[in-house]
Write a structure and sequence with these properties.
There is one protein chain. Helix 5 packs parallel to helix 7 (110-121). By secondary structure, the protein is mostly helical. The protein contains 10 helices and no strands. It is elongated and about 65 Å long. The N and C termini lie far apart (75 Å).
């Protein structure tokens, strides 16, 4: 190969399907999340002057949707699987409110979210107590410490009644 032809090589972008598959091989994505990642990737490659530059945004969007439809049909992309993984990953450190917000931002169906959050609600007090005991372990002695512990649990997405029980000294049965 001559020196001239090796210098003129233009980096060709991986196919849309290949990029989507690479992303899914690393972790689960919701349909909305994967679509956003692929759109971002397409925009990056078009800035580099790849062959996608002459495509309109509408055609890129339709290509992304076609890939996502194909992946869902094959079972490679599943909002249900994504939601279960997210709940499993976050449940030890966060309360229902925070997890519900994250599921909503990810575009997970509200019916699916409600089912998972219903299961999570059963263990809300236990999870809040475990988190509190790892962080503090001792009941607050004054109002300032009580407010600090309350804010900590509330910021993690636990409901006020659950936080009040934990801070008040109740223990799980």
């Amino acid at each position: 190969m001559s020196e001239l032809s090796s210098n003129q090589k233009v980096k060709q972008s991986p196919s849309l399907k290949a990029r989507a598959l690479r992303l899914l091989s690393q972790r689960e994505y919701s349909r909305k999340g994967l679509a956003a990642k692929l759109a971002e990737s397409e925009a990056r490659w078009s800035k580099l002057g790849a062959e996608q530059a002459e495509q309109s945004p509408e055609s890129r969007h339709s290509q992304i949707e076609a890939v996502l439809d194909d992946f869902e049909a094959r079972g490679w992309l599943s909002d249900e699987r994504f939601a279960e993984a997210l709940v499993r990953r976050r449940s030890e450190r966060y309360g229902m409110r925070k997890i519900a917000d994250e599921l909503e931002r990810a575009g997970v169906d509200s019916k699916q979210s409600a089912k998972l959050l219903g299961i999570l609600k059963e263990t809300e007090f236990q999870r809040a107590f475990d988190l509190w005991s790892r962080k503090y372990g001792v009941r607050p002695q004054d109002q300032k410490e009580k407010a600090r512990q309350y804010r900590f649990l509330a910021s993690k997405g636990f409901g006020s009644e659950v936080v009040a029980k934990v801070i008040g000294g109740q223990t799980p049965d």
